[in-house]
Amino acid sequence: MGSTSAENSNTEGVGRRDLIKRSAALGLITVPTMSFLSACASGGGDDSSGDENQGKTSKKNPFGVDKGTKVDVVVFKGGYGDDYAKAWEAAFDKKWGTKSVHTGTQEITGKLQPRFNNNTPPDIVDDSGAQQIKLDVLAKNGQLLDLAAVLDAPSIDDPSKKVRDTLIPGTLDPGLQGGKVVALNYIYTVWGLWYSGKLFKEKGWEVPKTWDDFLAICKDAKSQGIGGLAHQGKYPYYINVAIMDLIAKKGGLDAMKAIDNLDPKAFVGSDAAQAAVEAIYEVVEKGYLLPGTNGLTHTESQTRWNQYKAAFITCGSWLENEQLKQTPADFDMKFMPMPNLPGSALPFEAIRAGSGEPFIIPAKAGNLPAAKEFMRSMLSKEWSTLFAQKANSLTILKDGVSTGVKLRPGTQSTVEASKAAGDNTFNYLYPNWYSEMGTAIENASNELMSKRIQPKEWLKRAQAAVDKAAKDPASKKNHRD
């Protein structure tokens, strides 16, 4: 989620046959804990009124893209860079005769909030990063287009199918607000722990499947002057990956749903939550954190990890692309699931997996036909492959990468982890549904990692954030069974 889009010399990847196998495996990935929500998202339609840029519609041009019109595209230039978007825009303009205007930035709120306020927003936005405009706020203000028209349009690759039927199941769910899909989370993301295959081989460390084994490696690392765990201290979002993964794996899907459904015992009174936060605090208490990591940004912390100064780091699967420039050619970046606490309900192989990087079409976009067609094109094999080539990550499109595309070691390891997980995947929806609550929990985690509060107080603050969100009448529109 920082900024880099450089290439590096590491060309390791998979061959053609392996890629076909990978694609087949990805096609089978499901997110059963979330798929019930997809049914809620099939209704609705286009919220927009007339559009001055409307051209003639046809089977090949269902939204009526008009030649010569401008398409205003704003992309968060973070872990995935923005080269992929430039490639998309060039392909779009060539096909439709449009004129794309590209903005790549990390200052999403700073650049776009005034435009939303003035009813002159861009046509399509990758609304991501630390300065994201919160989706629940935009949705409450009626500033997001219901994407049902795009999702119910014919797929470019197979017009006999709707776009929504070509996607990995469950991946639309994080874009739901009040039962409507208003954000397209485009990238198939996994979250967990990362390590260097080279360092592990040198030290004789095995992938830790239990929390005790994880702590043992951290202890050994510390004895050799290496940090056990690096974390992106200035952005406690990342350490919450570890805490929330441990809660879900310890307590099962019910513990996860209790948080999303704002249960009065989501944190205080939850054995899983208590065990998880105590486990993370043990890392702090025993001095297994990379020294100084609490004061580092995400890229600073990740770069120290790339320099073999820490054994582990928590992150999502954008990490490899974000760190291309800083990663040694023989680093052998690897992903692994969060190790299990004793008595965990889910197996070690279970991972948080789903869709990330939300793309939105503002309701007041100046060129709605082009914006919708642009998003439909994103969900074609051609554009999905362009993304994989430029951003070293997978999209939510089933079998979305053409054969012959080589994947880097970290990305390949996420594919293997997804295959091993099978149906044992989970994902939280509260960060998109209740951004204020998410921030409050992150703030509590920041205090915890700095030893300013202890686990009991963390649980209290997290529960208070849940209880506050539950008082908002709008929260009644969001529920997972």
Please, could you describe this protein's structure?
The protein has 481 residues and is an alpha/beta fold. 39% of the residues lie in helices and 13% in strands. It is built from 17 helices and twelve strands. It has helices spanning 16-28, 83-96, 108-117, 135-140, 148-151, 197-203, 211-223, 237-260, 271-285, 298-306, 319-322, 368-378, 381-391, 409-421, 430-433, 435-449, 455-470; strands spanning 70-76, 99-105, 124-126, 176-177, 180-181, 184-196, 227-230, 310-316, 333-336, 351-360, 394-395, 425-426. The strands form two sheets. Strands 1, 2, 3, 6, 7, 8, 9, 10, 11 and 12 form a ten-stranded mixed β-sheet that branches. Helix 2 packs antiparallel against helix 13 (381-391). The longest helix is centred in the middle third of the chain and has 24 residues, at 237-260. The protein is globular.
Helix-residue proportion:
25-40%
The count of β-strands is 12
Average predicted confidence as pLDDT: 89
Low-pLDDT runs: 1-50
Q: From the alpha-carbon coordinates, what is the Rg to the nearest angstrom?
A: 22 Å
Taking the sheet with the most strands, its summary is: 10 strands, mixed
Shape assignment: globular
Spell the H/E element sequence: HEHEHEHHEEEHHEHHHEHEEHHEHEHHH
